[in-house]
Design a protein that fits this description.
heterotrimer; A alpha/beta (365); B mainly alpha (168); C alpha/beta (667); A: 365 residues; alpha/beta; eight-stranded mixed beta sheet; five-stranded parallel beta sheet; 7 helices; 24% helix; 25% strand; C: 667 residues; 34 strands; 35% helix; elongated
Chain lengths: 365, 168, 667
């Protein structure tokens, strides 16, 4: 932060969003001597990745969820990053090479969270910055908008993110409090993705590997559990997932065709109607739980901030990657996994540094 | 056997002028909720769309399943990719008739015999399983009405022309 | 050394605005009463916050302290900020005791909280007493970077570094630049830029024969065109050796992807009507599969060809993958989806009949194609293989040069100063390969820094008299910091590369490696200290937690207020792999009832073999104990990632409980 003659605080770059991409971008900028203002709406860093569980079985399954912890730690040692938690960007205007930014306390955030890694200002602050990177991430698709999937009607229909929470909370032991693990679980892929009719005709990129790792973890914890993955087109990426899939086919049934209906009887469990294994007959099958692999959709903040900073041209409601001095990185540009978001953010940081250093001498090393 | 004939790859243009069906991802949601998917023979609407895309002309021309559709249009509602499978089913029916003037869908025979497009006499076992009255009441229980009904249908050109199929 | 140290205990009543709720005045008496000794005890409010820079150094100087135990928050949060907020204080001079999470967060009962705090501070004191002091030294760094392989990744790395004013030695095994993508526009632009640059020395038909030295000061022996040998000195090495695409069958109707690309560029109209693409990622690899979609689409949309793609699942990667797939569907490219058995091709009358079973229709298909395009799955190039051998890099099962995500940045390898970019790491299309090159270049640039790097001067060393030259340390070192001197056949440790994990010392059968920052002695001393004050109930469980995984999970458990039993005492170790059988039995001998070793999930250990070693050591101990008729459960290994605090709390509770049950059992 540079204070020049008692005027308003300034930073080289504003980063909006303190998830995986925002943290990586901030670190990359700070490593090369730039001052960063990092604004995060929630009162903690990490975004959605902070809610994920470790997917290791006997060995690490490269889910990358723990990378976030390392990234947050590294950022703690970085002085030139000012972190504002529970804060949103309220206004932005541009004059020449500078942006005037007004940030202020966010509404409707969980105030019970103690902000650990940054400051939570109580009033508005005005900042001057020379560049902006939007890292506003994604929203999880709201599965209750697809009523025939039964989400919201029964506790036995959950999302992959909720299963992550269960596994994170109960370690490698249990399931719900007080009840044993289910004996039959069905995963349903592409919930909210590949829905051209709703303007989301894209693949969310990560859900197949997410479900695969979850299915593998369940099969590892509960070898007796019957697991079926209903998929459309399995996306086996990254490389390690492909070999993992091959080794899982003995324990997990991968069935092409997703359910057309999930019935939720009052007595619990779910009944799934989907294309049967042989591709023809359709028999309703009972399961104890259905896990919906919910996709990534553009967040509301992304659209608002995209308008504010004039980032247009992204598909499906995402923002475009932009050009210096306004860039976007991570899942607000298109769905990506954690390492993909990190790389994307670091690359955006590099593009911005090279553009800014044309105007200003950037500290070396 | 899926194979490609001379005009197979252009065939879809005859069936439908729409482009939407090309986006079918074969997710199977259309089949999974379809009431006619449990008919005999089952209507597998996804497979019909795929056959159009892959140009399975001969196969489709002889396929009777499009005629078992009960036109509830559920598939149309739930299709995430906006493929419009219901429209496609109807389009296939038209295409079949256009390409084969002698075509007589079995559902027409059923319609003539019992007043239903589906082969309802085959559904008895299934009905019994789910606790329904084992026999679906049809017009055959009222012989005088049936006679009137069939006489009326005989007025229709295609039935008249093929009366040997119906008379028996 | 240990007796000479003057150690102070500094505490703070709040961390980042959060009160600790521990009566530190009372604690002082407790610690002193329990036989803990310290030179100074006092409060430093708001430790390590911005604006109090240098305060810690001042206190140390004015009180004449050699070391400090900081009783406040986590080493993870405060420790990371130490270099900034306490300039002049070395990390070996400070031991952090996390009162905030392990006492305040985990215990509601004030008495329990204070007993725990007392035990933790005593453990901190015990550790700090045996910490060795490191004198920092600076080392000159060679101001050049070697980039091995001049494909898209290598070119973009070289160009980035040249822009930054770095000297680059660009090695290419072939005689042209650009690799597989030399025809692409972006790559062609890079080629001319690199060739015109004064900063880049391009060595064609060159390969590295030998690498000496360490991060910052590598010396490369290079064999170049005509067998001539040259030497170059570089500070960092970027490996961008790419992939090799073995050619497919070229006898028509077969054609390789490379040849089709050529014909497509020259005279696309001359290509026959029906084109089949065997493009399942299992067969041709991820990259070719996506390339096939693009090519098939282009030929269908622009030249009216009929394209048939045979692949089980259609990979849709990123924005470009998404739009390519949509374009393919619009252009009328037909996707046949064979089952896991794939397709069989019969050639008849110079045409190919592709046969298989479609998984959607559950019907056999037999599609006649005029040309059938295929290839073999890409393999690691000879260049990558050779580079991996010369540079001593770990490779994965399928021999790509990537160590996985064990470190934060995918550009890192298992050797410091050697970075990886592009398809040598994982199959990457040209734009991603170029991005990989840039990211590796950034890291290389950071290593070169301003010409020097800080190192700990000569702390870790191998006692040459005790060394049996078995080279266990050489094989086990996760960062390639241990080299073998050619003449004497004995290992040597590089101070530049050593990350101080200590697993070589733990693994050394001769116990010949000395002077680690956290030596085994420190763990034993912590074990001795953790016994007091004794918990009123149950045995003492010492949880030795890997700083990166288990300790982070333990901290987070406290942060979330999860209950950790009082009798579980958490200690931080640099790597679970240093908890050897000697250490475990030493701890049990001292009177610790249970030892929990908490490390990373196997395969995700930053020190590669660390958690696996820890697991094996624990198993050995359990076997021995069981054979001697003892309770094998008194030693246990738990792989717990940093994001699994609930799992840590659960395991801690189990260890404490199991202990209680057993203690009631007559032995």
């Amino acid at each position: 932060m540079t204070i020049s003659g008692g005027s308003q605080p300034s930073a080289d770059v504003l980063i909006v969003g303190g998830g995986v991409a925002g943290i990586a971008a901030a670190q990359a900028l700070a490593d090369r001597g730039l001052d960063v203002l990092l604004v995060e709406k929630q009162r903690r860093l990490g975004g959605k990745a902070a809610e994920l569980a470790c997917m290791a079985t006997q060995q690490c399954r490269r889910c990358s969820a723990c990378l976030l912890e390392d990234a947050i730690q590294a950022l703690q040692g970085t002085r030139s990053v000012r972190i504002r938690l529970g804060t949103v960007v309220e206004e932005a205007s541009r004059t020449g090479d500078t942006f005037q930014i007004t940030v202020g306390p966010a509404k409707d955030v969980d105030t019970r969270v103690t902000p650990l890694h940054g400051v939570t200002p109580k009033s508005q602050e005005r900042w001057k910055v020379s560049g902006v990177i939007l890292c506003t991430g994604f929203d999880v698709f709201d599965a209750s908008t697809r009523p025939f999937l039964g989400y919201g009607r029964s506790k036995d229909v959950i999302t992959t993110l909720e299963l992550d929470h269960i596994l994170a909370r109960n370690g490698d032991r249990g399931w719900d409090e007080g009840s044993g693990p289910p004996s039959k679980v069905a995963f349903v892929q592409c919930v909210g993705s590949r829905e051209r009719k709703a303007g989301r005709g894209y693949c969310s990129q990560v859900c197949c590997s997410v479900s695969l790792r979850l299915a593998g973890k369940l099969a590892f914890l509960h070898p007796e559990m019957e697991i079926v993955v209903h998929y459309i087109d399995l996306q086996l990426q990254p490389r390690s997932v492909r070999s993992y899939h091959a080794s899982l086919t003995k324990k997990v049934v991968f069935q092409q065709g997703v359910p057309g209906e999930i019935i939720t009887p009052n007595e619990g469990g779910v009944i799934i109607r989907s294309v049967a294994e042989d591709g023809t007959a359709v028999e309703p099958v009972s399961f104890d739980k259905a896990v919906l692999a919910v996709g990534m959709v553009p967040s509301k903040e992304t659209q608002k901030l995209g308008d504010m900073f004039g980032l247009k041209g992204g598909r499906f409601g995402f923002v475009s990657a932009g050009a210096p001095p306004v860039l976007a990185a991570g899942t607000c540009v298109f769905p990506r996994d954690i390492p993909g978001s990190i790389d994307d953010a670091r690359d955006a940081a590099d593009r911005l540094i090279r553009a800014i250093s044309g105007n200003k001498e950037v500290a070396h090393g | 056997m899926i194979a490609l004939g001379e005009n197979s790859l252009e065939m879809y243009k005859d069936v439908s002028q729409e482009e939407d069906f090309k986006f079918c991802m074969t997710c199977g949601i259309c089949i999974a909720g379809c009431p006619a998917s449990r008919a005999d023979p089952p209507l597998l609407i996804r497979n019909l769309v795929r056959k159009v895309i892959l140009g399975q002309e001969d196969d489709l021309l002889n396929d009777d399943t499009p005629w078992t559709c009960v036109t509830c249009s559920r598939c149309e509602e739930v299709c995430p990719q906006d493929v419009k499978p219901f429209e496609m089913g109807l389009a296939i029916r038209q295409w079949q008739c256009k390409n084969d003037e002698t075509r007589l869908p079995p559902s027409l025979v059923e319609l003539y015999k019992r007043g239903y497009t589906q082969a309802v006499d085959k559904s008895q076992e299934l009905r019994a399983q789910v606790g329904m009255k084992d026999k679906l009441p049809t017009i055959t229980e009222y012989p005088d009405l049936l006679e009137k009904y069939q006489k009326m249908l005989m007025q229709i050109e295609i039935i008249k022309a093929n009366d040997y199929m119906f008379g028996g | 050394m240990a007796e000479m140290q003057k150690i102070g205990v500094l505490y703070s009543n709040s961390v980042g605005g959060r009160p600790l709720n521990v009566d530190f005045k009372k604690l002082e008496k407790l610690i002193a009463g329990d036989g803990g000794s310290f030179a100074y005890y006092g409060e430093v409010p708001d430790l390590l916050v911005e604006g109090s820079e240098g305060r810690l150094a001042e206190v140390m100087k004015s009180r004449g302290l050699d070391g400090i135990v900081l009783a406040a928050g986590s080493a993870r949060t405060l420790g990371e900020r130490l270099p900034i907020l306490a300039p002049g204080v070395g990390r070996e001079q400070v031991t952090f005791v996390n009162i905030l999470d392990h006492c305040t967060g985990a215990h509601e009962d004030a008495a329990v909280r204070e007993r725990k705090a007392c035990a933790l501070v005593r453990m901190g004191l015990a550790r700090q007493r045996v910490m060795s002091t490191i004198e920092k030294d600076k080392l000159e760094v060679f101001d050049a970077v070697a980039v091995v392989g001049a494909g898209p990744a290598g070119l973009s790395a070289a160009s980035w570094l040249a822009d930054r004013g770095r000297k680059v030695v660009l090695l290419e095994s072939g005689n042209g630049l650009g690799g597989m993508a030399s025809c692409e526009k972006d790559v062609a632009a890079l080629i001319s830029k690199v060739e015109a640059s004064d900063a880049v020395e391009v060595l064609k038909e060159a390969r590295i024969e030998e690498v000496r030295g360490n991060k910052g000061s590598f010396t490369l022996s290079i064999v170049k065109q005509g067998g001539k040998r040259v030497e170059r000195e570089v500070g960092a090495i970027v490996v961008s050796t790419g992939l090799a695409y073995p050619p497919g069958n070229e006898e028509e109707p077969w054609i390789s992807y490379a040849k089709l690309d050529k014909r497509r560029r020259e005279a696309p109209g001359d290509l026959p009507e029906n084109l089949g693409f065997i493009a399942d990622p299992e067969v041709v690899g991820e990259l070719v599969a996506q390339h096939a979609i693009t090519v098939a689409t282009g030929l269908a949309a622009d030249h009216g060809k009929h394209s048939f793609i045979f692949m089980g699942d259609v990979p849709v990667r990123g924005e470009s993958g998404q739009s390519n797939y949509e374009a393919a569907l619009m252009a009328g490219v037909r996707f046949f989806r064979p089952d896991a058995r794939g397709v069989k091709v019969e050639v008849k009358d110079a045409k190919a009949i592709v046969k298989g079973l479609d998984i959607i229709l559950k019907q056999d298909f037999a599609i006649t194609c005029d040309l059938i395009v295929t290839g073999e799955r890409p393999r690691v190039s000879d260049g990558s293989r050779q580079a991996a051998e010369v540079l001593r890099l770990a490779v994965e099962d399928d021999a790509f040069l990537q160590p996985g995500n064990i470190t934060y940045l995918p550009t890192y390898t298992t050797r410091q100063g050697v970075l990886i970019a592009g398809a040598a790491g994982t199959e990457a299309p040209t734009p991603l390969a170029m991005r990989g090159g840039r990211l590796a270049a950034i890291e290389a640039d950071a290593i070169l820094g301003e010409g020097t790097i800080s190192i700990g001067a000569g702390d870790v060393e191998i006692d040459q008299a005790a060394c049996a030259a078995c080279l266990t340390c050489f094989r086990i070192c996760p960062v390639g910091a241990i080299g073998v001197s050619v003449d004497r056949k004995v290992p040597r440790i590089s101070d530049v590369d050593c990350r101080d994990c200590g697993i070589c010392a733990a693994a050394c059968p001769q116990r010949a490696i000395k002077n680690f920052l956290t030596p085994e002695l420190a763990i034993l001393e912590m074990g001795r200290a953790c016994l007091k004050p004794a918990p009123p109930d149950g045995p003492v469980v010492l949880a030795l937690c890997c700083a990166r995984s288990g300790y982070a999970a333990a901290d987070a458990a406290g942060e979330l207020g999860l209950p950790i039993p009082e009798n579980v005492r958490v200690a931080r170790v640099p790597c679970a792999g240093i908890v050897s059988t000697n250490v475990i039995f030493g701890l049990l001998n001292l009177g610790v009832d249970r030892v929990m070793v908490v490390g990373c999930p196997i395969d995700n250990c930053q020190n590669k073999h660390g958690s696996n070693l820890a697991r094996r050591w624990v198993e050995t101990c359990r076997d021995l104990i069981a054979n001697l008729g003892g309770d094998a459960n008194s030693v246990s290994f738990h792989p717990i990632a940093s994001n699994m605090p609930h799992l840590f709390a659960q395991r801690a509770a189990e260890a404490a409980r199991r202990g209680k049950d057993d203690s009631r059992r007559p032995s």
